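B., you asked whether I could sanity-check this one before it goes into the benchmark set. Here's the sequence:
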Amino acid sequence: MKHAACAAAISMSANSGLAQEVTLRFQHFVSPASANPTYFMQPWADAIEEQSDGRIKVELYPFMQLGGSAPNQFDLIRDGAIDGGWVIPAYQPNRFPEAEALELPFMTSKSGEEASAAAWEYTETYLMDDFADVHVIAAHMHGPGIVHKRGDAIETLEDFDGLKLRGPSRPATMLLDALGATPIGMPVPQFPEALSKGVVDGGVITWEMSPSLKLDELTDSHTDVAGDQALYNLYFIWAMNKDVYDGMPADLQAIIDANSGMMASMWAGRAHDTGDAVGRDLMAASGNEIATLSEAETARIMDLGTEVTTRWIAEMDDKGFDGAALVAAAQAAVTDNLID
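And here's what the prediction gave me:
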């Protein structure tokens, strides 16, 4: 009711020709010092305010300060509890199954910007119906997922055996299981406590999140795979409440639109790339071991990743989707958006 009244007020002011002031409360679940809030969310909010001559103000709330939890962020936006925010669809397994195609093993390159361009292309074709209850501003991916753990770095496939590793998504936990680890799915805010209490031995996450999660203190080693393809990736959307967007005057909607779509998605991806470089350097400076698997061991993991993708296709077919077509579409989107 509150947001319906807000939308009505916006409409009335627009019709009367008065300058409209709109405050949008956007929420996310990580530190404001981490890469996406620093290099995308805050600059995006600043651009909206500047281009609207101050008629739109975007307030950013980290650490879920407006309430709720990271897994139910989509519903908070849809229901109008917040005006907008950052969503990881994978935090609600099986709700948005088509999005998982982008998260399959070795699907994307190690460039967050390239992967995010692919994410927007794929989203426009396959996912807008799934997200019809919100107004999607951007769809993006992060940079390469890295294995962070206590103790020595991973050197061979067998080193995964028995490790309890945090994973962010169903495809990621499927891969960890195939590698011989014990996967434990959990949102990123729970990861540091799980490490400190020994619930997990480590997990997979990006370089850029490492400093804000204190992985320099909580883990000892960080391992990437060889080559240009990411071990795994994670899909995000930046979205706002549909009624709030629809209730804004057309000229203010146009400012949101000008900072949406492919450009905003790539912007968000670049934010992760920037943060990855900073995060890796900080982990190295702490004295932690930085490692890259050999090409031979990476090839063994890629073979298991292919098996995970085959299994995912079969699961999607059982749900009434064309799993192979979704994988092919995700692969095509990735190929289309490689940056020379």
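One thing to flag: The longest strand covers residues 134-141. Otherwise nothing jumped out at me.
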